Write a sequence for this structure.
Protein backbone atom coordinates (compact mmCIF):
# COMPACT_ATOMS: atom_id res chain seq x y z
CA UNK A 1 0.00 0.00 0.00
CA UNK A 2 1.19 3.48 -0.84
CA UNK A 3 2.73 5.56 1.92
CA UNK A 4 1.41 8.99 2.83
CA UNK A 5 3.62 11.54 4.56
CA UNK A 6 2.02 13.35 7.47
CA UNK A 7 3.79 16.44 8.80
CA UNK A 8 3.57 16.45 12.60
CA UNK A 9 2.56 19.63 14.41
CA UNK A 10 3.72 19.38 18.01
CA UNK A 11 5.08 21.32 20.97
CA UNK A 12 8.26 19.54 22.20
CA UNK A 13 6.80 16.15 21.37
CA UNK A 14 3.23 16.85 22.51
CA UNK A 15 1.33 16.12 19.30
CA UNK A 16 -1.46 18.58 18.53
CA UNK A 17 -4.89 17.28 17.70
CA UNK A 18 -4.99 18.34 14.01
CA UNK A 19 -2.10 15.93 13.37
CA UNK A 20 -4.13 13.03 14.75
CA UNK A 21 -6.93 14.07 12.40
CA UNK A 22 -4.43 14.05 9.52
CA UNK A 23 -3.36 10.50 10.40
CA UNK A 24 -7.00 9.42 10.32
CA UNK A 25 -7.51 10.99 6.89
CA UNK A 26 -4.17 9.64 5.63
CA UNK A 27 -5.34 6.07 6.28
CA UNK A 28 -8.07 6.57 3.70
CA UNK A 29 -5.47 7.00 0.98
CA UNK A 30 -2.55 4.88 2.20
CA UNK A 31 -0.23 4.06 5.09
CA UNK A 32 0.68 7.07 7.21
CA UNK A 33 4.36 7.84 7.72
CA UNK A 34 4.77 10.68 10.22
CA UNK A 35 7.51 13.30 9.90
CA UNK A 36 8.49 14.71 13.28
CA UNK A 37 10.97 17.60 13.29
CA UNK A 38 12.54 19.06 16.42
CA UNK A 39 12.72 17.65 19.94
CA UNK A 40 10.47 15.06 21.57
CA UNK A 41 10.19 12.43 18.82
CA UNK A 42 10.26 9.56 21.34
CA UNK A 43 7.33 11.01 23.26
CA UNK A 44 5.45 11.77 20.07
CA UNK A 45 6.09 8.36 18.49
CA UNK A 46 3.81 6.53 20.93
CA UNK A 47 0.89 8.86 20.18
CA UNK A 48 1.55 8.76 16.45
CA UNK A 49 1.73 4.94 16.44
CA UNK A 50 -1.51 4.73 18.36
CA UNK A 51 -3.19 6.71 15.58
CA UNK A 52 -1.86 4.69 12.68
CA UNK A 53 1.68 5.85 11.87
CA UNK A 54 3.57 2.83 10.53
CA UNK A 55 6.79 4.79 10.70
CA UNK A 56 8.00 8.00 12.33
CA UNK A 57 10.77 9.79 10.47
CA UNK A 58 12.54 12.19 12.75
CA UNK A 59 15.22 14.85 12.64
CA UNK A 60 16.29 17.52 15.06
CA UNK A 61 18.60 20.42 14.27
CA UNK A 62 19.03 23.91 15.73
CA UNK A 63 18.27 25.36 12.28
CA UNK A 64 14.59 24.38 12.65
CA UNK A 65 14.24 26.91 15.46
CA UNK A 66 16.86 29.45 14.36
CA UNK A 67 15.48 30.14 10.88
CA UNK A 68 11.98 30.54 9.52
CA UNK A 69 10.26 27.69 7.62
CA UNK A 70 12.86 26.86 4.94
CA UNK A 71 14.99 24.36 6.97
CA UNK A 72 11.83 22.38 7.69
CA UNK A 73 11.15 22.30 3.94
CA UNK A 74 14.62 20.77 3.46
CA UNK A 75 13.74 18.10 6.02
CA UNK A 76 10.33 17.33 4.56
CA UNK A 77 11.90 17.11 1.12
CA UNK A 78 14.42 14.58 2.50
CA UNK A 79 11.50 12.54 3.86
CA UNK A 80 9.72 12.82 0.51
CA UNK A 81 12.80 11.52 -1.29
CA UNK A 82 13.25 8.68 1.20
CA UNK A 83 9.66 7.48 0.94
CA UNK A 84 8.27 8.47 -2.50
CA UNK A 85 4.82 8.91 -0.99
CA UNK A 86 1.42 8.97 -2.71
CA UNK A 87 0.62 12.27 -0.98
CA UNK A 88 1.95 14.73 1.58
CA UNK A 89 -0.47 16.02 4.22
CA UNK A 90 0.12 19.01 6.50
CA UNK A 91 -2.02 20.93 8.97
CA UNK A 92 -3.53 24.17 7.58
CA UNK A 93 -1.61 26.35 10.00
CA UNK A 94 0.32 29.36 8.73
CA UNK A 95 3.52 27.37 8.93
CA UNK A 96 1.99 24.17 7.54
CA UNK A 97 0.77 26.01 4.47
CA UNK A 98 4.10 27.75 3.90
CA UNK A 99 6.09 24.52 4.24
CA UNK A 100 3.67 22.73 1.91
CA UNK A 101 3.84 25.52 -0.66
CA UNK A 102 7.62 25.54 -0.85
CA UNK A 103 7.79 21.76 -1.00
CA UNK A 104 5.27 21.78 -3.85
CA UNK A 105 7.48 24.10 -5.91
CA UNK A 106 10.54 21.96 -5.25
CA UNK A 107 8.97 18.65 -6.19
CA UNK A 108 6.93 20.08 -9.08
CA UNK A 109 3.59 19.31 -7.50
CA UNK A 110 0.28 21.07 -7.07
CA UNK A 111 -0.99 22.17 -3.69
CA UNK A 112 -4.45 22.30 -2.19
CA UNK A 113 -4.93 24.20 1.07
CA UNK A 114 -7.65 24.26 3.73
CA UNK A 115 -9.24 20.93 2.82
CA UNK A 116 -12.13 20.03 5.11
CA UNK A 117 -12.35 16.44 3.95
CA UNK A 118 -10.30 13.98 1.96
CA UNK A 119 -11.13 10.78 0.13
CA UNK A 120 -9.41 8.36 -2.23
CA UNK A 121 -10.25 8.89 -5.91
CA UNK A 122 -9.45 7.08 -9.16
CA UNK A 123 -6.91 9.75 -10.06
CA UNK A 124 -5.54 10.44 -6.59
CA UNK A 125 -6.94 11.97 -3.43
CA UNK A 126 -9.94 14.27 -3.75
CA UNK A 127 -10.10 17.21 -1.34
CA UNK A 128 -13.26 18.97 -0.25
CA UNK A 129 -12.95 22.71 0.38
CA UNK A 130 -15.32 25.35 1.58
CA UNK A 131 -14.90 28.55 -0.44
CA UNK A 132 -16.31 32.07 -0.94
CA UNK A 133 -17.03 32.54 2.75
CA UNK A 134 -18.35 28.97 2.88
CA UNK A 135 -21.07 29.69 0.34
CA UNK A 136 -19.67 26.97 -1.96
CA UNK A 137 -18.31 23.48 -1.42
CA UNK A 138 -15.77 22.30 -3.99
CA UNK A 139 -14.03 19.04 -4.71
CA UNK A 140 -10.57 19.27 -6.21
CA UNK A 141 -7.59 17.14 -6.98
CA UNK A 142 -4.01 17.64 -7.92
CA UNK A 143 -3.12 16.93 -11.52
CA UNK A 144 0.68 17.22 -11.49
CA UNK A 145 3.21 15.58 -9.21
CA UNK A 146 2.61 14.19 -5.73
CA UNK A 147 -0.42 15.79 -4.09
CA UNK A 148 0.48 18.23 -1.31
CA UNK A 149 -2.62 18.95 0.75
CA UNK A 150 -3.13 21.01 3.90
CA UNK A 151 -6.14 20.16 6.05
CA UNK A 152 -8.08 22.38 8.44
CA UNK A 153 -8.50 21.43 12.10
CA UNK A 154 -11.74 19.61 13.02
CA UNK A 155 -11.98 18.01 9.56
CA UNK A 156 -12.11 14.47 10.93
CA UNK A 157 -12.52 12.77 14.29
CA UNK A 158 -9.19 11.21 15.29
CA UNK A 159 -9.48 7.42 15.38
CA UNK A 160 -7.18 5.05 17.20
CA UNK A 161 -5.57 2.50 14.83
CA UNK A 162 -2.49 0.98 16.45
CA UNK A 163 0.47 0.60 14.09
CA UNK A 164 4.19 -0.06 14.46
CA UNK A 165 5.34 3.56 14.66
CA UNK A 166 8.96 2.55 14.18
CA UNK A 167 11.20 5.57 14.75
CA UNK A 168 13.80 6.17 12.04
CA UNK A 169 16.35 8.95 11.90
CA UNK A 170 16.18 11.11 8.81
CA UNK A 171 19.39 12.57 7.45
CA UNK A 172 18.82 16.25 6.74
CA UNK A 173 21.23 18.74 5.25
CA UNK A 174 20.02 22.29 5.73
CA UNK A 175 21.05 24.30 2.67
CA UNK A 176 22.69 27.69 3.16
CA UNK A 177 19.92 29.19 1.05
CA UNK A 178 17.45 27.99 3.69
CA UNK A 179 19.11 30.09 6.38
CA UNK A 180 17.93 33.39 4.95
CA UNK A 181 15.39 34.41 7.57
CA UNK A 182 16.78 34.52 11.08
CA UNK A 183 14.49 34.16 14.07
CA UNK A 184 16.06 36.82 16.28
CA UNK A 185 13.75 36.21 19.22
CA UNK A 186 10.76 34.09 20.06
CA UNK A 187 8.31 34.87 22.86
CA UNK A 188 5.89 32.04 23.54
CA UNK A 189 2.32 33.16 23.94
CA UNK A 190 1.13 33.10 27.52
CA UNK A 191 -1.26 30.23 28.02
CA UNK A 192 -4.78 31.24 29.00
CA UNK A 193 -5.54 27.66 30.03
CA UNK A 194 -8.35 27.65 27.46
CA UNK A 195 -8.43 25.36 24.43
CA UNK A 196 -6.77 26.52 21.24
CA UNK A 197 -9.19 28.55 19.13
CA UNK A 198 -8.84 26.57 15.91
CA UNK A 199 -9.01 23.19 17.63
CA UNK A 200 -11.75 23.83 20.20
CA UNK A 201 -14.99 21.88 20.06
CA UNK A 202 -16.85 24.94 21.34
CA UNK A 203 -16.07 28.60 20.63
CA UNK A 204 -17.71 31.59 22.31
CA UNK A 205 -17.06 34.87 20.48
CA UNK A 206 -17.75 38.48 21.37
CA UNK A 207 -18.16 41.41 19.01
CA UNK A 208 -18.98 45.08 18.92
CA UNK A 209 -21.90 44.51 21.31
CA UNK A 210 -19.47 43.59 24.09
CA UNK A 211 -18.68 47.28 24.13
CA UNK A 212 -15.25 47.37 25.77
CA UNK A 213 -12.31 45.24 26.87
CA UNK A 214 -13.56 45.49 30.45
CA UNK A 215 -16.67 43.51 29.47
CA UNK A 216 -14.92 40.57 27.80
CA UNK A 217 -14.82 38.62 31.11
CA UNK A 218 -18.57 38.11 30.55
CA UNK A 219 -17.70 36.19 27.37
CA UNK A 220 -14.78 34.41 29.03
CA UNK A 221 -16.95 33.24 31.93
CA UNK A 222 -19.39 31.58 29.52
CA UNK A 223 -16.50 30.03 27.60
CA UNK A 224 -15.00 28.65 30.81
CA UNK A 225 -18.30 27.17 31.93
CA UNK A 226 -18.44 25.26 28.62
CA UNK A 227 -14.71 24.45 28.38
CA UNK A 228 -14.67 26.60 25.22
CA UNK A 229 -12.18 28.83 23.44
CA UNK A 230 -12.79 32.58 23.23
CA UNK A 231 -13.03 34.33 19.89
CA UNK A 232 -13.60 37.93 18.86
CA UNK A 233 -14.90 39.69 15.78
CA UNK A 234 -12.73 42.05 13.81
CA UNK A 235 -14.62 45.02 15.22
CA UNK A 236 -13.75 43.96 18.78
CA UNK A 237 -10.12 43.32 17.83
CA UNK A 238 -9.72 46.57 15.89
CA UNK A 239 -11.13 48.43 18.90
CA UNK A 240 -8.36 46.87 20.99
CA UNK A 241 -10.73 44.93 23.24
CA UNK A 242 -9.26 41.51 22.54
CA UNK A 243 -5.99 40.20 20.97
CA UNK A 244 -5.75 39.67 17.23
CA UNK A 245 -4.73 36.04 17.82
CA UNK A 246 -8.34 35.43 18.88
CA UNK A 247 -9.91 37.05 15.83
CA UNK A 248 -12.37 34.86 13.96
CA UNK A 249 -12.94 35.77 10.34
CA UNK A 250 -11.42 36.13 6.93
CA UNK A 251 -8.30 37.91 8.17
CA UNK A 252 -8.16 36.05 11.45
CA UNK A 253 -8.72 32.41 12.27
CA UNK A 254 -11.16 30.22 10.49
CA UNK A 255 -12.93 27.93 12.96
CA UNK A 256 -15.21 24.97 12.51
CA UNK A 257 -16.26 23.81 15.98
CA UNK A 258 -19.18 21.63 17.00
CA UNK A 259 -20.78 24.68 18.62
CA UNK A 260 -20.22 28.37 17.87
CA UNK A 261 -21.80 31.01 20.10
CA UNK A 262 -21.71 34.58 18.76
CA UNK A 263 -22.53 37.27 21.30
CA UNK A 264 -22.96 40.86 20.17
CA UNK A 265 -21.78 40.02 16.65
CA UNK A 266 -23.83 41.26 13.71
CA UNK A 267 -22.40 38.77 11.23
CA UNK A 268 -20.60 40.72 8.51
CA UNK A 269 -19.41 38.61 5.53
CA UNK A 270 -15.86 38.95 6.88
CA UNK A 271 -16.86 37.21 10.11
CA UNK A 272 -19.13 34.65 8.48
CA UNK A 273 -16.21 33.52 6.32
CA UNK A 274 -14.46 32.37 9.47
CA UNK A 275 -17.25 30.49 11.24
CA UNK A 276 -19.95 29.50 8.79
CA UNK A 277 -18.89 25.84 8.69
CA UNK A 278 -19.47 25.44 12.44
CA UNK A 279 -21.83 22.53 13.07
CA UNK A 280 -24.25 24.31 15.41
CA UNK A 281 -24.48 28.11 15.48
CA UNK A 282 -26.04 30.16 18.25
CA UNK A 283 -26.30 33.95 18.38
CA UNK A 284 -27.26 36.49 20.99
CA UNK A 285 -27.86 40.00 19.69
CA UNK A 286 -30.05 42.98 20.53
CA UNK A 287 -30.72 43.66 16.86
CA UNK A 288 -33.35 41.25 15.53
CA UNK A 289 -32.30 42.24 11.98
CA UNK A 290 -28.62 41.26 12.42
CA UNK A 291 -27.51 39.06 9.47
CA UNK A 292 -26.04 36.51 11.90
CA UNK A 293 -29.60 35.36 12.64
CA UNK A 294 -29.82 34.01 9.07
CA UNK A 295 -27.22 31.41 9.99
CA UNK A 296 -28.29 30.30 13.41
CA UNK A 297 -29.74 27.09 14.70
CA UNK A 298 -30.85 29.01 17.75
CA UNK A 299 -30.91 32.75 18.28
CA UNK A 300 -31.82 34.96 21.19
CA UNK A 301 -32.82 38.55 20.48
CA UNK A 302 -31.78 40.31 23.64
CA UNK A 303 -29.13 42.11 25.65
CA UNK A 304 -26.01 39.95 25.87
CA UNK A 305 -25.30 41.36 29.34
CA UNK A 306 -28.56 39.78 30.51
CA UNK A 307 -28.56 36.61 28.44
CA UNK A 308 -24.92 35.54 28.63
CA UNK A 309 -24.55 35.65 32.45
CA UNK A 310 -27.90 33.88 32.82
CA UNK A 311 -26.72 31.19 30.40
CA UNK A 312 -23.40 30.88 32.25
CA UNK A 313 -25.21 30.37 35.58
CA UNK A 314 -27.50 27.82 34.01
CA UNK A 315 -24.60 25.89 32.46
CA UNK A 316 -22.78 25.83 35.80
CA UNK A 317 -25.93 24.71 37.61
CA UNK A 318 -26.57 21.90 35.12
CA UNK A 319 -22.97 20.75 35.23
CA UNK A 320 -23.23 20.80 39.02
CA UNK B 1 21.19 53.40 -4.44
CA UNK B 2 17.49 53.61 -4.48
CA UNK B 3 15.47 50.75 -2.97
CA UNK B 4 13.41 48.90 -5.56
CA UNK B 5 10.13 47.72 -4.04
CA UNK B 6 7.62 45.58 -5.94
CA UNK B 7 4.16 45.18 -4.41
CA UNK B 8 2.11 42.25 -5.70
CA UNK B 9 -1.60 43.01 -5.76
CA UNK B 10 -4.65 41.03 -6.80
CA UNK B 11 -7.89 42.11 -8.38
CA UNK B 12 -10.62 40.11 -6.68
CA UNK B 13 -14.39 39.79 -6.81
CA UNK B 14 -16.00 41.92 -4.11
CA UNK B 15 -16.62 39.66 -1.11
CA UNK B 16 -19.80 41.52 -0.26
CA UNK B 17 -21.19 40.61 -3.68
CA UNK B 18 -22.74 37.29 -4.67
CA UNK B 19 -19.72 35.28 -5.82
CA UNK B 20 -20.14 32.37 -8.21
CA UNK B 21 -18.26 29.86 -10.31
CA UNK B 22 -18.38 30.03 -14.10
CA UNK B 23 -19.12 26.93 -16.19
CA UNK B 24 -15.45 25.96 -16.40
CA UNK B 25 -15.33 26.11 -12.56
CA UNK B 26 -13.13 29.19 -12.49
CA UNK B 27 -14.27 32.28 -10.61
CA UNK B 28 -17.06 34.04 -12.47
CA UNK B 29 -15.73 37.54 -12.90
CA UNK B 30 -18.61 38.87 -14.97
CA UNK B 31 -21.11 38.33 -12.24
CA UNK B 32 -19.71 40.55 -9.54
CA UNK B 33 -17.67 43.75 -9.31
CA UNK B 34 -13.95 43.49 -8.78
CA UNK B 35 -11.60 45.56 -6.68
CA UNK B 36 -8.12 45.65 -5.18
CA UNK B 37 -7.97 42.88 -2.54
CA UNK B 38 -8.35 44.62 0.80
CA UNK B 39 -5.45 42.66 2.26
CA UNK B 40 -3.16 43.99 -0.50
CA UNK B 41 -3.94 47.56 0.54
CA UNK B 42 -1.93 46.84 3.69
CA UNK B 43 1.00 45.75 1.51
CA UNK B 44 0.83 48.99 -0.49
CA UNK B 45 0.65 50.96 2.76
CA UNK B 46 3.74 49.27 4.23
CA UNK B 47 5.65 49.83 0.98
CA UNK B 48 4.77 53.52 1.16
CA UNK B 49 5.91 53.69 4.79
CA UNK B 50 9.19 51.96 3.93
CA UNK B 51 9.72 54.50 1.17
CA UNK B 52 8.93 57.37 3.54
CA UNK B 53 11.36 55.96 6.13
CA UNK B 54 14.01 55.94 3.38
CA UNK B 55 13.36 59.67 2.82
CA UNK B 56 11.76 58.84 -0.49
CA UNK B 57 14.84 57.09 -1.82
CA UNK B 58 12.82 54.15 -3.12
CA UNK B 59 10.69 53.31 -6.11
CA UNK B 60 7.46 51.37 -5.69
CA UNK B 61 6.23 49.26 -8.59
CA UNK B 62 2.84 47.69 -8.19
CA UNK B 63 2.41 44.42 -10.06
CA UNK B 64 -0.70 42.47 -10.93
CA UNK B 65 -1.59 39.42 -13.00
CA UNK B 66 -5.13 39.42 -14.27
CA UNK B 67 -7.66 40.40 -16.93
CA UNK B 68 -8.07 43.91 -18.35
CA UNK B 69 -10.19 45.04 -15.39
CA UNK B 70 -7.31 44.26 -13.02
CA UNK B 71 -6.00 47.63 -14.14
CA UNK B 72 -8.44 49.06 -11.55
CA UNK B 73 -6.43 47.41 -8.77
CA UNK B 74 -3.24 49.00 -10.13
CA UNK B 75 -4.88 52.43 -10.35
CA UNK B 76 -6.03 52.19 -6.75
CA UNK B 77 -2.50 51.36 -5.58
CA UNK B 78 -1.05 54.14 -7.77
CA UNK B 79 -3.54 56.62 -6.34
CA UNK B 80 -2.40 55.63 -2.84
CA UNK B 81 1.11 56.65 -3.89
CA UNK B 82 2.90 53.81 -5.72
CA UNK B 83 5.13 55.10 -8.54
CA UNK B 84 4.43 52.82 -11.48
CA UNK B 85 2.52 49.72 -12.47
CA UNK B 86 3.14 46.45 -14.27
CA UNK B 87 0.15 44.53 -15.59
CA UNK B 88 0.62 40.97 -16.81
CA UNK B 89 -2.32 40.22 -19.06
CA UNK B 90 -2.74 37.33 -21.46
CA UNK B 91 -5.77 35.31 -22.58
CA UNK B 92 -3.83 32.14 -21.88
CA UNK B 93 -3.69 33.05 -18.17
CA UNK B 94 -7.38 32.29 -17.63
CA UNK B 95 -7.72 29.66 -14.90
CA UNK B 96 -4.11 29.84 -13.65
CA UNK B 97 -3.76 28.40 -10.13
CA UNK B 98 -1.52 29.51 -7.25
CA UNK B 99 1.58 27.69 -8.50
CA UNK B 100 1.14 29.12 -11.98
CA UNK B 101 0.55 32.59 -10.60
CA UNK B 102 3.73 32.36 -8.54
CA UNK B 103 5.64 31.44 -11.71
CA UNK B 104 4.28 34.45 -13.58
CA UNK B 105 4.91 36.80 -10.66
CA UNK B 106 8.45 35.49 -10.16
CA UNK B 107 9.31 36.13 -13.82
CA UNK B 108 7.68 39.55 -13.77
CA UNK B 109 9.42 40.55 -10.54
CA UNK B 110 12.77 39.48 -11.95
CA UNK B 111 12.14 41.37 -15.17
CA UNK B 112 11.15 44.51 -13.25
CA UNK B 113 14.15 44.30 -10.90
CA UNK B 114 13.67 44.30 -7.13
CA UNK B 115 15.25 44.48 -3.71
CA UNK B 116 12.07 43.88 -1.78
CA UNK B 117 8.77 42.23 -2.74
CA UNK B 118 5.79 43.08 -0.53
CA UNK B 119 2.58 41.01 -0.57
CA UNK B 120 -0.63 40.88 1.43
CA UNK B 121 -1.03 37.88 3.76
CA UNK B 122 -3.62 36.25 1.48
CA UNK B 123 -6.11 37.21 -1.20
CA UNK B 124 -9.69 37.77 -0.13
CA UNK B 125 -10.99 35.33 -2.78
CA UNK B 126 -8.76 32.26 -2.77
CA UNK B 127 -7.56 32.95 0.81
CA UNK B 128 -4.80 30.35 0.50
CA UNK B 129 -2.04 32.55 1.93
CA UNK B 130 0.70 30.59 0.18
CA UNK B 131 1.69 32.96 -2.61
CA UNK B 132 4.46 34.79 -0.70
CA UNK B 133 6.12 31.48 0.27
CA UNK B 134 5.78 30.15 -3.30
CA UNK B 135 7.31 33.34 -4.65
CA UNK B 136 10.23 33.27 -2.19
CA UNK B 137 10.93 29.65 -3.12
CA UNK B 138 10.88 30.44 -6.85
CA UNK B 139 13.04 33.54 -6.48
CA UNK B 140 15.44 31.76 -4.10
CA UNK B 141 15.32 34.58 -1.57
CA UNK B 142 14.31 34.72 2.12
CA UNK B 143 10.63 34.84 3.06
CA UNK B 144 9.74 37.17 5.91
CA UNK B 145 6.03 36.52 6.09
CA UNK B 146 2.87 37.26 8.07
CA UNK B 147 4.30 40.42 9.59
CA UNK B 148 2.39 42.78 11.83
CA UNK B 149 5.38 45.18 11.85
CA UNK B 150 7.99 45.67 9.14
CA UNK B 151 10.96 47.96 8.60
CA UNK B 152 13.92 48.15 6.23
CA UNK B 153 17.28 49.63 7.15
CA UNK B 154 20.75 49.18 5.69
CA UNK B 155 19.77 46.39 3.33
CA UNK B 156 18.10 44.38 6.09
CA UNK B 157 14.39 43.78 6.53
CA UNK B 158 13.08 43.23 10.05
CA UNK B 159 9.65 42.18 11.09
CA UNK B 160 7.40 40.81 13.76
CA UNK B 161 5.39 37.65 13.17
CA UNK B 162 2.54 36.84 15.55
CA UNK B 163 2.15 33.10 15.27
CA UNK B 164 -0.29 30.71 16.89
CA UNK B 165 2.02 29.82 19.74
CA UNK B 166 4.64 32.57 19.80
CA UNK B 167 5.61 36.02 18.63
CA UNK B 168 8.81 36.01 16.60
CA UNK B 169 11.12 38.81 15.55
CA UNK B 170 12.63 38.06 12.16
CA UNK B 171 15.46 39.45 10.12
CA UNK B 172 16.73 38.89 6.58
CA UNK B 173 19.10 40.53 4.14
CA UNK B 174 17.67 41.91 0.92
CA UNK B 175 16.55 40.81 -1.57
CA UNK B 176 13.57 39.26 0.21
CA UNK B 177 9.85 38.58 -0.02
CA UNK B 178 7.69 40.05 2.73
CA UNK B 179 4.01 39.58 3.51
CA UNK B 180 2.05 41.77 5.92
CA UNK B 181 -1.13 41.17 7.90
CA UNK B 182 -4.08 43.46 8.49
CA UNK B 183 -2.48 44.30 11.85
CA UNK B 184 0.42 46.10 10.15
CA UNK B 185 -1.40 49.42 10.03
CA UNK B 186 -4.49 50.96 8.49
CA UNK B 187 -4.12 51.61 4.76
CA UNK B 188 -4.40 55.24 3.68
CA UNK B 189 -7.21 56.56 1.50
CA UNK B 190 -6.15 58.00 -1.83
CA UNK B 191 -6.36 61.78 -1.83
CA UNK B 192 -7.96 63.66 -4.73
CA UNK B 193 -4.47 64.75 -5.73
CA UNK B 194 -3.35 61.12 -5.58
CA UNK B 195 -6.21 60.00 -7.78
CA UNK B 196 -5.43 62.68 -10.37
CA UNK B 197 -1.70 61.90 -10.27
CA UNK B 198 -2.37 58.16 -10.71
CA UNK B 199 -3.89 58.78 -14.14
CA UNK B 200 -0.52 59.96 -15.41
CA UNK B 201 1.63 57.26 -13.84
CA UNK B 202 3.07 54.70 -16.25
CA UNK B 203 1.66 51.18 -16.42
CA UNK B 204 3.68 48.67 -18.39
CA UNK B 205 1.78 45.83 -20.00
CA UNK B 206 3.42 42.41 -20.28
CA UNK B 207 2.24 39.15 -21.81
CA UNK B 208 3.50 35.58 -21.54
CA UNK B 209 5.95 36.05 -24.44
CA UNK B 210 7.56 38.97 -22.64
CA UNK B 211 8.14 36.69 -19.65
CA UNK B 212 9.33 33.65 -21.63
CA UNK B 213 6.49 31.54 -20.30
CA UNK B 214 4.83 28.94 -22.52
CA UNK B 215 1.03 28.97 -22.66
CA UNK B 216 0.84 25.37 -21.42
CA UNK B 217 2.73 26.24 -18.21
CA UNK B 218 -0.22 28.33 -17.01
CA UNK B 219 -3.97 28.68 -17.47
CA UNK B 220 -6.61 26.07 -16.84
CA UNK B 221 -4.81 23.41 -18.90
CA UNK B 222 -1.47 24.03 -17.25
CA UNK B 223 -2.86 24.17 -13.71
CA UNK B 224 -1.41 21.85 -11.07
CA UNK B 225 -4.86 21.49 -9.51
CA UNK B 226 -8.32 20.89 -10.90
CA UNK B 227 -11.68 21.78 -9.41
CA UNK B 228 -13.98 18.87 -10.30
CA UNK B 229 -17.15 19.97 -8.58
CA UNK B 230 -18.47 23.19 -7.11
CA UNK B 231 -21.82 23.16 -5.37
CA UNK B 232 -23.54 26.07 -3.74
CA UNK B 233 -23.93 25.33 -0.06
CA UNK B 234 -27.58 24.80 0.76
CA UNK B 235 -28.98 27.70 2.75
CA UNK B 236 -29.25 26.87 6.41
CA UNK B 237 -32.77 25.95 7.40
CA UNK B 238 -34.29 28.63 9.52
CA UNK B 239 -33.37 28.19 13.16
CA UNK B 240 -35.40 28.93 16.24
CA UNK B 241 -35.29 32.57 17.28
CA UNK B 242 -36.63 33.71 20.60
CA UNK B 243 -36.92 37.15 22.11
CA UNK B 244 -35.44 37.51 25.58
CA UNK B 245 -38.12 38.39 28.07
CA UNK B 246 -36.11 37.39 31.09
CA UNK B 247 -35.87 33.71 30.19
CA UNK B 248 -33.55 33.92 27.15
CA UNK B 249 -30.52 32.51 28.96
CA UNK B 250 -32.52 29.61 30.36
CA UNK B 251 -34.15 28.83 27.02
CA UNK B 252 -30.75 28.83 25.34
CA UNK B 253 -29.38 26.49 28.03
CA UNK B 254 -32.33 24.20 27.36
CA UNK B 255 -31.48 24.15 23.65
CA UNK B 256 -27.79 23.45 24.35
CA UNK B 257 -28.69 20.66 26.76
CA UNK B 258 -30.99 19.16 24.12
CA UNK B 259 -28.04 19.17 21.69
CA UNK B 260 -25.88 17.49 24.38
CA UNK B 261 -23.49 20.44 24.70
CA UNK B 262 -24.17 20.68 28.42
Amino acid sequence: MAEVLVYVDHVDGAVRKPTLELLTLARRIGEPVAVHLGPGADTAAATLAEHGAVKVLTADAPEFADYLVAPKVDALQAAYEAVSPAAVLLPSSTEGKEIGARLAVRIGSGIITDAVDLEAGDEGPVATQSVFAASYTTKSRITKGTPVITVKPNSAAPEAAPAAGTVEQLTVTVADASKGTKVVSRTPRESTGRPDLTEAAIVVSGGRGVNGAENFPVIEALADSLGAAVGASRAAVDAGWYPHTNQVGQTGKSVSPQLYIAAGISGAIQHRAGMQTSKTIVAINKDAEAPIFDLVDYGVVGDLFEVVPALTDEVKARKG
Amino acid sequence: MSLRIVVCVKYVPDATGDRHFAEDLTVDRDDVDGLLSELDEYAVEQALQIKEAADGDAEITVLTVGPEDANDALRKALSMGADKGVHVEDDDLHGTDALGTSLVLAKAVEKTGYDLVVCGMASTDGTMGVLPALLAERLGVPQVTQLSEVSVDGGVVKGRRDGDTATEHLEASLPAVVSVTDQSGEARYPSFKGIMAAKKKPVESLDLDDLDIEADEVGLEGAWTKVEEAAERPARTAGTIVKDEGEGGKQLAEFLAGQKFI
